[in-house]
Please model this.
Amino acid sequence: MPTVLIPLLIVADQISKLLALRFLDPVPDRLLPGLYLTLVHNTGVAFGLMKGNPTLLGVLSLVVGTALLVYLAQARPPRLWTVALCLVTAGALGNAIDRLGRGWVVDFLDIGPGLWPVFNLADSFVVVGVILLLLPWGRAKT
Model:
């Protein structure tokens, strides 16, 4: 069952954030061409919006993640939708853990200083999941 992905993805997200906290600093460190590791304490959401509202954002993330868990437990969406929703759920819950536990989200993946906001695995899970949901073939039964 694809829903087993959710706890695995959350664990991967949280371990990556713990490693970032342990080994990274705010100065960009080049890992590969076009990929840097830069520690950021993000108190907002994407693109720095809604900074300073970690509890509200954490509760919203928790509500979204919980609603998706309930939906996945009760509905039988097509397989691709299930995978996509598992990605979104894991991303929402991974960032909720940070917001409610730390008061900020650990971001560390940087595709180039100043080119794009620094992000994390949970953010990536949400983006990939939403893209899968938006694809025309993602709406067909699999």
Summary: The first strand starts at residue 29 and ends at 32. Strands lie at 29-32, 35-42, 105-110. The mean pLDDT is 90.
